[in-house]
Each structure stands twice: as C-alpha cells, then as structure tokens.
Amino acid sequence: MNPDTILYGASFYPEYMPYERLDRDIELIKNANINFVRMGESTWSVWEPEDGRFEPEWMDVALDKLHQAGIRVVLGTPTYSIPPWLFRKHPEVVRINRDGRREGFGYRQIQDMGEPVYRKYCERIIRWIVSRYAGHPAVIGWQLDNETCTFSGSFGPRVEADFLERLKKKFGTPEALNKAWGLNYWSRTLSCWEDFTDREQTVSTGHRLEWDRHQRDMTLDFLAWQAQIVRELKGDHQFVTHDFAGSYGMQSVDEEKVAEHLDIAGTNPYEAPNENLTGNAMIMACDHSHSLKRSNFFVLETCAQSMGHGNAGRQEPPFPGQLALQAYTLLSSGADMVTYWHWHSLHYGVETYWKGVLSHDLEPNRVYGEVQSLASEFRRFGHRLVGLQKKNRVAILHSLDSLQAISHLPFSKDVTYFTVLQQVHKSLSALQVECDFVFPHTEDLERYDFVVVPPLYIADDALLERLAVYARNGGHLYLFFKSGFCNEHATVRACRQPGGPLREAAGVWYQEFVTPPRPVALRNDPLEAGDSNQVTAWLELLMPEGADVVASYEHPFYGNYAAITVNQYGKGSVTYQGCNLTDPAQRRSLRNALVLAGIPVDETMPSAVRLRTGTNRDGKQVVYCLNFSYGPVTIPSPLSGDELRSGEPFTAGSPLTLPAWGCAVIAEA
Predict the structure, then answer these.
(1) What is the CATH number of domain 7-155+206-213+240-384?
(2) What are the angstrom distances between the C-alpha of 123 and each of 114, 115, 118, 222, 605?
(3) Which of 178, 201, 285, 648 would you call most buried, defined as having the most Cβ atoms within 10 angstroms of its Cβ?
(4) 147: Cα within 13 Å, side-chain hemisphere
(5) What is the pLDDT of residue 201?
(6) What is the pTM of this model?
C-alpha cells in the first residue's frame, strides 16, 4: 500500500466505552484531524458471544459513521483472546506451560496456536469478518492477530510430537541427530526415535536451540496461515499487516520470515514519554521494521500518555512537545502510520492505567490538543513526508539464533546478545550514523559499506564465508567477541577461534577467554574513554597473526594479549573486538572503525540531538532534527530548505534552534 499522506490515529474500541457515545467520539476524532483508526482485534466475544451466533451490528454502525466522517479503518482478526464459551467447550485449545499445566482462562494469548480445534474456530471467525467487510469503503487493511508469539513457550504432547516430526524431517535418522547434537554426552545417545526426551530434561545446547526455532516457527506458521485466509477474501484495495511487539518482538519472533507474508510490516515501539525519553528504543525497533521488507512500515501502537500494566506503573504523562517528537522520530525511520494505543483510557482491567489520548473523563485535554495540532501539521504537509526512502551505508547483523542461544548461557546477568545489540545501535545513533538491519541469510551484504556483527555465537559455514567474502571484496566488517564460535547446531567449532574463515579474515586467533571478576582497563586508554576505559563481563585473549593491535589489556597477565584488532583483508578490513566495553568506549571504538571505512560521523552535535535523513517521493531530501532533552539547543541547519512545521526557510549552516523536547523537519525546496 502507498498511502497519500501520513496515517495518523488511534486504536478505537467503542465496545469498551462505559456508556453509548459513538457519535461524540467520532466528532472528537474528526475534530482532532485524525484520519484513521484501528478496530476489532481485541473482542472475539463481542463478535461471537455464543458459539456460531455472530453479532456484527455494532461494527456495522461504527464503520458506516466513520466512513461518513472520512475516517479510514484497519480491522484486526480477533484471535489473540479467546471467548469464554470456547474455553468452556474446548479447554484443549489452551496451551500447556513449561510446568505441564494448562494456562488458566482470563488472560490474553493463552491458546495453543497450532491446536486443530482452535484453528477451526479461528478460521470461522476470520472468514466471517473478512467476508463481511472486504467491500466496506472505510476498511483499508487487515491486521493479523496481535503481537503474536509463544511468550513463555507452548509445550505439551501435541507440540512435542510436532517437534519430533521436525527433527525426523531435518536430520533423517537418530544417528545423524546424535552426531549433530553430541548426544554421547551423559549417555543421551538415541538408538531409535522413541527414546527422544522432552526439552525440559535436556542438557543439549543443540536441543535447546532447535526448540527455540520450533517455537518461532509456530508463530510464523500461524500468521502465514491467517494471511492466506485473509488474502483469499479481502478487497483488492486492502492490505495485510501485523503489529510486531517492538523490541520484544526482535527477541522472540522471526519477523523477517513473517514479513514475507505481509504487504507491509507493522510494529509497536513503546518508549515512555517522560524525562528519560531518549528515542533509542523507538528508533531501533523502527529501523528493524524498515529492514524487514526494505520498505516503509506502520506503527500500529505507541503510547499517548503514561503506561501501566497490571498496576498503576509509572504514571508520567508526556511533557509538552514530546508527542510531536515521538511521532516525527517514528516517521524519520520510514513509518507511514502512527497509531496511539489507544483513543480512550479504560475504566477497568489490567490496562486501566495505560492511558489513551482521552483520559478517564473522556473529555478533550492537553494531550488531545497536541494530537490535534500534530494532525493538522500532517494534513498540511504529510504528503511531503509519506513514503520516505532511506539509503543507509551501515548495517547491523541481527541473529535470533545467537540471541536465543546466548540467553541460555549469558555473558553475565547484565550482558547478553540483546544488550550488545542495543549498545551498538545506540552508539551508531549517537554518532549520527543511521543503519539498517540484515539477517543471517541476507545475500547482498555488499550494498553496505560497513557491517557490524554483534556476538554471532550461532552461524553455519555459509554465513561465515559470506562475511569473509564481503570483507575481501571491499566491505568493512566489525566483529564482536564470540562470533563464529558455534555451528548451526550450537556445537562449538573444533578449531582455534574465531571459527571458520573468520580467523583468516580477522587476522587473529584465541584459545582462552575470561569472565573478569572486576573491570579491566585498556592499556594507555587507546579509545580516550577516560573513566569509562573499562572492559567488563567478557574478554578474549587475542593473538594477532597479521592484524594490527588497536588495544590491549592493562593487566599483569592479560596484558600479553590483544583486546581489539584491525586487519586489512583483501580490498576491505575486519575489526575484531574481543571484549565487552562500556558505552563511551564502545562508541569511540565504532567511531574509529567507521572513519577507517570512510563513513562520515558527527561528534559535534549535542549529545541529545539526533539527525535522521531520507528522500521523499519528489526526490527531495528531508532531515529530521530531534532534541531529546529538557533544554533548547541551537545547531547549524543541516540542509537548505523549508522547515515544514514553522514554514520558515533555512540555509545550510544557519542557526536552527530546537526547543526542549522539540523537533524540526527541513525539506529541500
């Protein structure tokens, strides 16, 4: 789908209202200049209050009135929260948890997504809803389910039987599985498939990894199945999307594979608008979403006011300007839609204090006024922002296998794969370097000049070879500790590390590694990190064989070894970082490697300012200038053009003042 302007709205649930006020809400929505709402995904029991008895009238009325008001609608399939009658008739649709007990009824997403009875009832409600509204002029698209994943995991006989079939198909024979997983260890060798044990009793790292893949593929299969049904019935003008759960989704769902079944990817990037707002979580989730299909995406949920789940949480309403800062931050990564969860604050339930645009009094308020003002801006110049094209020179390799394998064997309680991934993205952002994400099977790495590889603990030989070829052919590779350590079965490579062709490419090897009991400094502070010149959690004792030493350890024994190296390899280079650095040191290390690769960095901007760039549909450059701080800052204008929000012209280099929590959008004239 290619919207003609920014889609700006909220999730709208008239079925949750404490009294009938549909006309009043639509009036407020229209007066706020909101141009779309998301509906219907949360209340299967309202659509179908009894088995086979459907009640569409409430939605018919709402859709007709929204259409009359010129407000577009995204409808969701209501399958993530089952109705009571389904649980009563078929308790087997509820998933079994890791303790062997079925989940209790009451919470959302308690179902076993592959259970045949659950699928039968899902298909019936999906077909009924999509058939009814495929031709409705208000409905522009369909959201599949909601933030789908297996959460704490789905277990039990059916899931485990499916897992065993997966192993038979993948490995063929018990002997092949024995070899891949090293099942001779502790007398786990299988003589027949009947001897296979469940995951909870396993000591096999390969077993754990394959189980995690199985859980991810359950989500993939469920959403692909839903997409196929919706595509069969939807209108030609309607799109199919799904709302991944922001940064949480990056840790538990194979979003890239799911995105193959979507017309446009969606995400729910929550970051509380308060005094700690940095934009880092929003930007990372959105950069990831943009990378899934290498195209623009939708934000289907983000916060309007304070967030509280299960209790009051931290009730910190947004400061003036933060909603606009949040929205323009999302657009700066290529979002064509911004949706608040939700239109009104709930008067009951565990999300009572997850507040919407309207507070509990359901009257216009300060936040409503800011939404109204922001929507007016999008109405004026949204056509100049929609469809922003990004062309980044830097990418981060995101490996879900490595993330989940390391989660079972973390470097420390504070350092995991995901914390390193976040640190890398935050460091690049602080250097005003925008990035994409690539994935283990991405073939065209050469489209990027610089690729950062967080701890690639799990990788097959083909991926390691692609990384080495990328560098040899002129790319600049930045490898982190533990990369290349295990093959695709979580079996440690029986060679000096880093494994496979990475050793030659990096020009370095190691046999020993350390979890230091206290921080260790880098000798002579080579990264100029001052008090932050520290290595924590993990360090490898590197031996160069051709690589230049960038940093070594300040230690009577570890000091005999390198900590960071760089190797000229073919036409490119490989930096190898064998240790976990503090944030300032990490930023400096990446900065040095980027400069070596010829990637421009900007360390002159105030630390709270982010510059984000793209090209609009008219081929004109657009720069978002974002100030994540309490105080006003003045920066040189990065571009000659019109500042769209104020209408003022600027020339490149002229002073541009950003107010507290303020932003400017400069578009090339």
Answers:
(1) 3.20.20.80
(2) 12, 12, 9, 11, 53
(3) 285
(4) 19
(5) 72
(6) 0.96
